Structure formats: C-alpha cells, structure tokens
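User: Hi! I'm working on a homework problem where we have to compare a predicted structure to a textbook description. Could you give me the structure for the chain below?
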Amino acid sequence: MPTDHVMNRTFKETLSGTVRFKIPFFQRGYAWKKQQWDDLFVDLQEQIIGELEKGSAIDEVEHFFGPVVVMEQTGTPELKEFLVIDGQQRITTIYLLLAIIREQIRAKKHLSGDAHGYLDELKKYIFNDVPGSDDYLKLKVFSSKGDRLPTYRVAFGSDTNSKTPYLQIDQQMYVQGTNGVDAFQKYALKKLKADYPDVPALWQLAQVVLNCLKIVWIPLDEKKDDEQAIFESLNDKGRRLTASELLCNYLFRPIMDAKETEELHNSQWLAGIRLLEGDDRFEEYLRHLLSIGETKMVGKHRKVYVHFKSKNRNLTAGAAKQHLADIFSGAPLYRTIADPLAHPHNDEGVQQLLIAIGNTRMESSTPFVLSVLRARAVGTLSTDSTRAIFRETLVLLVRRKMTELATTQYDVMFPSLLGKIINEPNPVKALHERFKQHLVWVSDQEFEEAVTNKTAYRRNDLAFSRMLLMEIDKKLQSYGQLPDYSTMSTIEHMIPQTLDERWKTYLGAEAEDDYLPIIVNTIGNLCLLSGSANSAAGRDPFEAKKVGYSEVTALARLIKQHSGRWDMKAVRERSQTLAKEALAIWAWANV
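Assistant: Happy to help. Predicted structure tokens:
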C-alpha cells in the first residue's frame, strides 16, 4: 500500500469543501453496535473533554481514531469524490453524529443566541452546496445500499421533500428498525439528551469531534493501486471482510457502467441476501452453490472467495453478469432447502423430502440437493425423477447416520454427483452405483441391526430422532387421518434415563447392567408424546405411565397394549419390531 501522501487529519479537514465519500456497494452496511459507540463516547469524554476541563486548549488535544483508506475517483470540478476502502464505520459514525448534534442544537435554538451561528458552521461539514435536482449529492457520506435513505433522513430530518432518482429504490430497500443507522440515531439521541443537555455542551462536543479526533488518511491512486489487492490485504490484517463481500467486489469490478452496477447490485446481489434473510445464510448458500460440479466441497468462509477467484482469473463483464444471474436464480431454491417449513417447495412430494433430508442434518449433501432442484427448475429433470433421486438420497442419509458410519466421503461424492447420473437411462440405478463406488452404501442387514441396537435418542440431534419416530408412527397408524405431529413435540423414555428408587427396585439386577444406559435410548424404549404428557409421566412406574399415555400416536397405543414387565428384554423385542418397520420405510428402490 503506497504511503506517499499518508497524513494525520481531523474530521474538520476531511469533511471541508464540496466532497463526497462513497461507501462501495461491495462493503457491508453500517455495522457498528453499542460496544463501539460506548467506546467512542468514553474516549470523547475521558480522553478529550476531560483534558479540556483541565485547562488544555482544543488544538493541543488529539485522539487517534484509526485509519481511513480512500481512493480518489475521477469526478467533476464541483464535487471531489472518494471511494472509502477502509474506515467506513468510522467516517459514517462521525458524519451521523455531527448531523444528530446539529438537529439537537436546532431543537434548542430558542435557548441560545449562539445557536444560529453553530447551525451554519455545522452545515458546512454535513451538506454539499451543489446545484441540481439530486438532493443525494448534498450528502457528504454516500452509501449505495440500504444505509443511504436513513442517512439522508438523519441529515435532513425526513425524506418528505427529497428530490432524487434513487428515492423510490431506497424506500423499497429500507426496512425501519432493522437498519444500523437507525439504531445509532436512537442511541445517540439518548446519549446526547442525558450527557449533553444544552447548546454549549452540544457545541463543545461538535468541536471535539471535528478538531480532536485524528484519522490516518491513506489515499490510493486509482490508476496505480489494485483495489482488490488492497481489500484482501486489509482482510488479512484483521479488519475482517466476509467472503461474500470480497466476492461481491470481485464480481462487480469488470462491470464498468455505474448505473448498471447499482441496478444489478440491488436487483440481484442484495435481493439474494434479502431472500436468504441475511449475510450469514447467503454466504452458506454461495459455498454450496460454488461447490456444485467440483471434486470436493468448497471450504468455509474466505475459502469460498479464494475458490471463486482461482476459477475466474480473467473475469469479463459478461461472465460476471451471468454469475450474478445464476446466484440470484438459485437463492429461492436454496431457501427451500435451508428452511423448507417457512419456504415450502411448490411440489408437495419434493417439499416433504426436503424436510426429511434437512432433519438428517447432513449439510454436505446440500450442493447435490441444490443441483437437483436447479435441474428440475430448468426442465432438465422431471418432478418424478427429482422425487425419486431425493428419496434414495434420504435413504442413504438416514441409513448411514443410524449406523454411525463415517460420512467423510460425502464431501467428495455429493458436489459432482448429479453430473454423473443425470444423463443415465436410469438415474436412480446410477445413483445406487455411485453410492457403492464411494463405499457409502448401507445394506439392509446393517441398517436393521443399527436400528435395533444403536442409540435412536440423540440429545444433540433431536430433529433426527423425532423424524425416525414420526415416520415409523405414520406407518403404524391404522386410521385414515394422521395426527398433528407438531403437538407431539417430545420424546418419552419408558424406562427413564435417570432411575429413581422405584425403577431400580422394579428392574432389579438390570438397574446395574452396563448396557442399560444404551438400551434406554434405543428406539424400542421411545415414543412421541406432547410436552404436558411427557412431564406428567415423569419417572412414574411403567404401569402408571402407560395409563396416562395418549392414544393419538400409534407408538403410544402399542405401549398401552403391552402386558407384562417393561425391562431390557421387552425393549429389545420392541426395537426388533420397529427396526423391521424402519427397513420398510427407508428401503432402497428396486431397480
């Protein structure tokens, strides 16, 4: 990073003149929280105002506030423009704070004869005096995403009379109460009213912010410096940029037209993030999407960006636009995978399979699931084929998880799996062959033995445990209508996990059996109950428990019909019976 013109600057110097600091669309939005705001106000009060109260002159006190890295852009003689490469949070916070201080002085101007002069002075650091029909040009800190409208509202008080071609777009993007700018305004107003209640105190705070906070001003050369390399360098040094932010910057670099860039960013990139309800899930989606067709699952976090960059070294504008279109078109499909209950698939059969696959929590299958959904969406796969492929995938995931066999091959098998079966005459048969080639196939015998003998109740994986019991219960139901399983939210252990004296007496020597803690959690000792029924049963003796069981679920009904002791032998026998039901439910297709 060049340092020829590095210097210390005050915010008075930084915000003077007709200048605009543009926050790039590939940067995150305003993200500072209460911890950072508290730190700022503590520093202002203790490090600066405290010194002034001891008699120091304002030009003698300074406090280092961190670096601001900017790249001057080719603009107009009337307006000097800088792209903020690093320091976005600092410069945005100070700009907003000055605007909020000004509005507070305006509200109290009838109490001070000096207020009008203060308002005029602060106006120079908040607004650009520029002609034209775009009021946004008057903002000295200018974001190209959801922060722009709330920033305008903080500076101007409202957007009622705003004249800008961006207003309609920004109003559509803005959701009140979810924006960091709104949060800071609320925090700052409370802070100012409590600690800076009158015009003199507000003016002193403004002078401190403008004159005593020092930044290290680091200008880059638009013609000489590699903006992307600077981004990556900053990321390496701890000012963490997410993989999706780095990827966004890289994707939009070749698209030169500013208007087209913002339109694509809003309509595809930001729209995708909104569809997936936040940056974290969006980055997970990018990882799964970019893994499709690869020999191995792409790594997490920064590796997502490194992978994309290595595959697209000479990215053209056309290729970048195609990638953006692919990313946006896949986001709704990924949403049905990540949260199929909230965002159901348009085919009920596919929807039910997506819920079940999700309950296995085998996320390494997601690139394959996503690729299948994409193929169906464009007509390459029929709905029937999609269902069949998903069903066999579910059988694999359930069987392998129940047998507790290694799943390390999933990262290698799933990303490119669809490409290896989609053109086969019988995709399901080809899928089975791939499972066997990767040594992940689970035989009927292995699965039946696992359901009989292995733990079905998994405290850290209750969604999977509930799915096992619910699907078996469905198969055992003799009535035409299934119960509402959402009300059967808890898993009951007939023999309790922790034995009281009554159960120890009831079980006799078995209470000390080393195998008992395992058998207690096998499927034969479990059924589904409502939360209230489970609580009522508690550690009651078996005969008392089963009287209170509801007959809504088939599993509970069968327990109520059991006569005789409920001991390890009874649990084993029931596990064997239920294992045969499981074998029929999660059976390999006959191809």
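For your comparison, note the following. The beta strands are 7-10, 19-23, 63-76, 79-86, 141-143, 213-220, 490-493, 526-529. The two ends are 62 Å apart (CA to CA). Good luck with the assignment!
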